[in-house]
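Aggregate trends can hide what the representation actually does to any particular protein. For completeness, the protein is quoted in full, as a sequence line and a line of structure tokens.
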Amino acid sequence: MRQMIAHAILGTMIASAGVQPAAAQATRSASSSQRPNILFIMTDQQHAGMLSCAGNPHLRTPAMDALAAAGTRFELAYATNPVCVPSRFSLQTGRMPSVIGMRSNEGKLPVPEPICAESLGPLLRKAGYKCAYGGKDHTPTDLSGYMMTHGYELLTRDERDNLAARCAEFLARPHDRPFFLFVSFINPHDICYMAINDHLRSEGRPIRTNPASQFCERLLDQARSSGDLAAFVRDHCPPLPDNFEVPSLEPSCIRTEYVEPVAFRQFAREHYSADMWRLHRWLYCRLTESVDAQIAIVLNALRDAGLEHNTLVVFTSDHGDMDAAHRLEHKSVLYEESVHVPLIVSWKGKLPAGRVDRTHLISNGLDLLPTLCDFADIEPPADLPGRSIRPLLEGKADDWRDYVVSESQNGRMVRTQRYKYCLYDRGENREMLIDLQNDPGEMRNLVGSPDHREVLNAHRALLQRWVRQQADDMAAAYLIPPEPQS
């Protein structure tokens, strides 16, 4: 019976997942004559649970919440790679980072000109949009240069308050054609500086003195100046997450390739007390609130300019942060806190409001470019692996994919509706199979469970199929094939 169930699971998944036909990639209405303005707002290092509208009681994000109330919030959105440069490459191009051999923040990797020419800014500019960009770029050098030359007007490279102000000025301008404004804020990324500075202090070395580090230090001084840090933590800081401990069968690659090579990560995992982890979570909340206030400036400017009803607004993040799960901070690994991201899309008066989509698996790096092309009445590049989510926003989708794939420096992830399979390229416990329905904290690795052998084989097959379709040569060398069925 289990064998029959496994074959049924695998057949269904393979039939409807993976690369979609070109006809399915763009489902725009031919009768739609109005092309909306597009406002794309991105934060940095914000995991999917870091919004008050997502049920987080430890912070308040009124601007993000207002966007969600006006549109659709997707609860199953994932980054293509949980680190800045690869994820941002995907968001601009609609392609997996591995297509150019990218594993991590390798900004000097060459990007072929055809890929640059079919990135968001150049595509929309060629179609008649006024394209502008502000804030953090952090895409590969070739792509960045092409985007700013052939796509976007650069408003500012500031990533904080001045970015919000410059974008508000842009929105207040008269516009004689539709615009595409890409707003890229840095926070809550500054959370990195807490562990960095604590490690430096532990070695008697000077802490970082850049503005981001100073901002974090000022916030932390609120806690230190209370006179009783333990009482401050008890009364004001979020509790430890339920998945605070390290799973017993965690892939060793996480320790050897992610934790140990970076001194401050190892310091935090091995030496932070429970109170320090709770303080870390408190600071992460405050940094998220700070960027929410900057987003509010941009959204208020959109409203004041009378543009809300003809502007599609997209909000997402490039990746998450571990936020004390499994005694980790930072990103890069394939745990949920790192790779699972927020995604909200709204168009006041044109798309349904106040919806939460808990069903459809979205790749923000692959699906947003086809989606924006769909709304802008542009034919997307034919070979993209993503799909427009416009049918989901309009409640017209009759079928959708059954899995999404994410990459990391040392692994690959397949996420289906219930399960998550990760495969790392080296070390012990290379595979990880998680039942997210019963174990959302990813504490129990089911790879060795006889009751889950068929599910494991089905997910191995899905990853093999994806890697073959995407010509992902980096992963092909370490794939584990499904075991023969007896």
In short: Residues 1-32 have pLDDT under 50 and may be disordered. The first strand starts at residue 37 and ends at 44.
